[in-house]
Design goal:
By secondary structure, the chain is mainly alpha-helical. It has a domain of about 25 residues. Helix content is about 70%, strand content about 0%. Helix 1 crosses helix 4 and helix 3 runs antiparallel to helix 4.
């Protein structure tokens, strides 16, 4: 279910993605002052990816009281989610 929901959210973002915002001439200016409005669809996609990465990292490493076995089970869960995403072509 996690993979399905992730794929749905990613698909919604990709549908809104504007190809010209991916071009270097636009994307390379994103960090200049006053350019916060540039490439909003690309920014949303990057933010989504970073949010997922942060979730995976936090669940794997965020609780210092986790045992190695617990951590391994969490990593195994995320591997299964990743494989399910791959099956869904995400």
């Amino acid at each position: 279910m996690v993979a399905e929901q992730q794929t749905y959210m990613d698909a919604e973002l990709f549908k809104k993605l504007l190809p010209h915002q991916c071009l270097g001439s636009v994307w390379s200016k994103r960090n200049k002052p006053g350019s916060e409005h540039l490439a909003p669809t690309v920014r949303a996609t990057v933010a989504q990816f970073n949010g997922v990465a942060k979730c995976v990292i936090t669940t794997c490493l965020g609780n210092p009281s986790m045992t190695a076995r617990d951590r391994a089970m969490v990593v195994e869960h995320w591997i299964k989610v990743a494989k399910a995403c791959q099956t869904l072509r995400n």
